[in-house]
Design goal:
This protein has a domain of about 120 residues: Mannose-Binding Protein A, Chain A. Strands 1, 2, 3, 4, 5, 6, 7 and 8 form an 8-stranded mixed beta sheet that branches. About 50% of the residues lie in helices and about 10% in strands. The protein is an alpha+beta fold. Strand 4 and strand 5 form a beta hairpin. Bound molecules: calcium ion (3 copies). The site of one calcium ion has 8 residues, from strand 7. Pfam families: Lectin_C. Keywords: Coiled coil, Disulfide bond, Lectin, Membrane, Transmembrane, Transmembrane helix. This is C-type lectin domain-containing protein. InterPro entries: C-type_lectin-like, C-type_lectin-like/link_sf, C-type_lectin/snaclec_domain, C-type_lectin_CS, CD209-like_CTLD, CTDL_fold. GO terms for molecular function: carbohydrate binding.
Length: about 280
């Protein structure tokens, strides 16, 4: 190589200032190399001249890569954490919604049960109130009935099975007898049952009762207009002997339920009035 350079006909033109000239170029190059050659004391291992310039970039790239990996891992971690937090929040919201829905359903059912119970109690209260009113009214009627019975008994009336009976102490015709009863707020007695017949028989009276066929012969009707259904006629009666259209009860019989006789309405007899209380 030194020989090629030295054989060039055109001598090398040196443009450098004289001050910078170095006659010994190789010596200058080697001195520069030595000046930049790292020494073992700097901690840098000697290597090839080309790789020593790329190493910092490689370290930086590795660090940058690691940083990217860490950053990516962080992003993935945050994403997982965020998704899990959202899922937990949704689960809590769903659980709360289900809990609220269940509570609302239970509360509605309980409210309906209470409403039903309230309605039943209200109905029961109304029934009790109605019963109380009826009993109060019945009590008033009983008190009035007792008062009327007491008053009439003091005037000589008899009481039997919700009826008061007035027994005359004089005699009159059937029609006059009825007028006397009506003047007392009553009427001639209507015998509705075997028990009532027996009760009257035991009074040992011969008296008018409220039965007549004066309107139509043979068609017996009570003074309230109702037809006769069961008659307690004596033997051979009624016989309408000499036009007998009014009925008397008399005690001169052995059988207490066979004591009636049709009699002439103008004859005078005792009479029995009846007032239902
Ligand atoms: Ca009667
Ligand atoms: Ca007759
Ligand atoms: Ca007769």
């Amino acid at each position: 190589m030194s020989e090629g350079v030295y054989e060039n006909p055109e001598p090398f033109k040196d443009d450098e200032p004289d001050a910078m000239k170095n006659t010994d170029i190789d010596g200058q190059i080697y001195s520069n190399v030595r000046a930049f050659k790292p020494s073992p004391r700097d901690g840098i291992v000697a290597s090839e001249p080309d790789s020593s310039g790329k190493r910092p970039f490689l370290v930086a790239a590795v660090c940058l890569g690691l940083l990217c990996v860490l950053l990516l891992a962080g992003i993935i971690g945050l994403s997982v954490y965020y998704n899990r937090a959202i899922k937990d929040s949704e689960d809590k919201r769903n659980n709360l919604s289900q809990s609220c829905s269940l509570y609302k359903t239970n509360a509605t059912a309980e409210r309906d049960q209470l409403q039903t119970r309230y309605n039943n109690l209200t109905e029961e209260r109304d029934q009790l109130q109605t019963r109380y009113n009826n009993l109060t009214e019945e009590k008033g009627h009983i008190q009035l009935k007792l008062f009327v019975i007491e008053q009439h008994c003091q005037e000589g009336w008899r009481y039997f099975d919700s009826s008061l009976y007035f027994l005359s102490t004089e005699t009159k015709t059937w029609e006059k007898s009825r007028q006397d009863c009506q003047g007392r707020g009553a009427d001639l007695v209507i015998i509705n049952s075997r028990e009532e017949q027996t009760f009257l028989f035991n009074l040992h009276l011969r008296a008018w009762i409220g039965l007549t066929d004066s309107v139509t012969e043979g068609i017996w009707k009570w003074v309230d207009g109702t037809p006769l259904t069961t008659g307690y006629w004596g033997k051979g009666q009624p016989d309408d002997y000499g036009q007998e259209d009014c009925v008397e009860i008399y005690y001169g019989q052995d059988d207490p339920v066979k004591t009636w006789n049709d009699e002439n309405c103008h004859k005078y007899h005792d009479w029995i009035c009846e007032k239902v209380v």
